Amino acid sequence: MNPARNPPQREWTESGLQALPDDGFIHELVNGELIMRPKNNFFHGWICTRLSAVLTQFAAEHRLGVVLDSSTGFWMQNRNCRAPDLSFVSKAHLRELNFSLRSNTFFPGAPDLAVEILSPHNTRAEMDDRLRDFFASGARLVWVINPETESVEICRSLSARQLTASGGFLDGEDVLPGFRFAIVDLFREMDWE
């Protein structure tokens, strides 16, 4: 399913975006157009929650910064408003921008780490556009998780991209120093017994 596109409004403001109803869609602003994507499936949510839990615990234990969910808006340099599935903003980045955790505004720029979990409706062109926005706006690392192939594309820039299969690891590198998580564990079935 392709994202729905609404007719362009003259100029979307942050308050206008925040006032959008909770209508079952994820809203983003791309090139002046409001893009509405359907909510994601159960498997997508399970992977997102599993990774969010380990990232949040690690970031909190090491006092590195904050992990945020897909309801968080980030203003890109080109005024697109993106909402990655998961994101991490370092304590240093927050301090550099004098940005408060209690702020009622979207974050001015990209997160240090953006995580995208592919859905059946995502296209390569769409993901490339997202990566372009993230890196142009200050992202240092992006993980693109493919549940279908149980792999992750680890992106350090638009040109430095590496596909890693389930035998590899998510490594926080200099963004989350010391973080290491087996990719296979993102997709591992729960042992209910």
What class would the helix/strand composition place it in? alpha+beta
Helix content: 10-25%
Largest sheet: 6 strands, mixed
Gap from first CA to last CA: 37 Å
How confident overall, as mean pLDDT? 86
Strand-residue proportion: 25-35%
Number of helices: 5
Series of secondary-structure elements, N-terminal to C-terminal? EHEEHEEEEHEEHEEEEEH
Radius of gyration: 16 Å
Low-confidence sequence ranges? none
Beta-strand segment tally? 14
| Spatial shape | globular
Strand order of the largest sheet: 4-7-9-10-11-12
Describe this protein's structure.
- By secondary structure, the chain is α+β, with helices and mostly antiparallel strands.
- 25% of the residues lie in helices and 29% in strands.
- The chain contains five helices and 14 strands.
- It has helices at 14-18, 42-61, 91-96, 124-136, 184-187, and strands at 4-5, 25-30, 33-38, 65-69, 74-75, 81-82, 86-90, 107-108, 113-117, 141-146, 151-155, 161-164, 169-171, 180-182.
- It has a six-stranded mixed sheet, sandwiched between helices. Strands 1-3-2 form a three-stranded antiparallel sheet, with no helix packed on it. A three-stranded mixed sheet has the order 6-5-8, with helices on one face.
- β10 and β11 (151-155) form a beta hairpin.
- The protein is globular and about 50 Å long.
- The termini are far apart.
